[in-house]
Amino acid sequence: MNITLRQLRAFIAVAELGQFNLAARSLHLTQSAVSILIRDLESEIGVRLFDRHTRMVCLTLVGQEFLPQARKILKDLELAVGDVRDNASLKRGQVTVAAAIVLAATIVPPIIARFLRTYPEVTVNVRDMPEEAISPALKRNEVDIAVGTLSEDDPEIVGTPLLRDKLMLFCHDDHRFAKRKSVRWAELQEENLIVLAATNPLRNLVEHNLIRVVPNFRPKYEVRFSTTAISMISAGMGVAVLPENSSQLASAVQVKTIDLIDPPVMREVSLLQRRHHSLSPAAAHLKAAFVAWAADRNKLPLSE
């Protein structure tokens, strides 16, 4: 079937105005153009829609039955196009962003709050989750974008760098390292080390540097969340190597952060999305808000 919108508009105009010349004037077309559109529509459907008289035209029985359906088709299309335009202009829309637990509690809320001040009609859903759950959520299309650590061996996920975050030693404030300015990785050999889950990208980064200087490295405890590790440190159960950003959650629980050296190690926090997967207008604008925040932040010294 090859029915066009111009044919439907011409049909509705003639049906409502009762004359080809009036319909032509309302559509800004010539009368002959409207006549051709109606003729082609009737030919495509295979039945007459109008009975022609000297001056007036009136709908046939089939035309009367077709008119409300034609109106509905145009109305539904107008609503659909309006929805698309509203989404494109961010007059409406929804975006779901995933973030690693600590990042969701620190850098993500202020960026989203600023975004929503500009685009208050957009709905933003935040899903805080372990680092290792982020890539699967993106691949299942459960989230649009994410903030976390990019795994180098995942070809389906691409990252836009946002910030670089130092790995630090976290210990109780009465620990023997607590008054030190820095600690060498090799000094962690005798410590009760609390590590993140084996599937967490941060775990790989920590183990890579520990095994280099402590070949027989064995963790004492394994947890899924940085917040759990910090609580265990506060209870005197051991120490942990975590990103510096996590220190924002540690100041009130008697936990100190110490520089790790020989070597100092950075991890990169990125805005993650599926490779070769177009973002919705709302998601694309929220991504831009994160990138703009990173550009402003990276103009400052790292310590800030």
Description of the molecule:
By secondary structure, the chain is α/β, with parallel strands linked by helices. The protein has ten helices and twelve strands. Strand 8 (193-196), helix 8 (201-213) and strand 9 form a beta-alpha-beta unit. Helix 1 (5-17) packs across helix 2 (20-27), helix 1 (5-17) crosses helix 3 (31-45) and helix 1 packs across helix 4. The chain is rod-shaped and about 105 Å long. The N and C termini lie far apart (64 Å).
Task: Give a short synopsis of this structure.
By secondary structure, this protein is α/β, with parallel strands linked by helices.
Give the distance, in angstroms, between the N- and C-terminal Cα atoms.
Answer: 64 Å
Compute the average pLDDT: 88
> Which ranges are low-confidence, i.e. pLDDT below 50, for 5 or more consecutive residues?
300-304
- Indicate the proportion of strand residues: 15-25%
Largest sheet: 10 strands, mixed
Question: Mind telling me the C-alpha Rg?
Answer: 31 Å
Q: So what's the overall shape?
A: rod-shaped
Total of helices: 10
Please provide the count of β strands.
12
Helix content: 40-55%
| Elements, N to C (H/E) | HHHEEHEHHEHEEEEHEHEEEH
- What structural class do you assign from the helix and strand content? alpha/beta
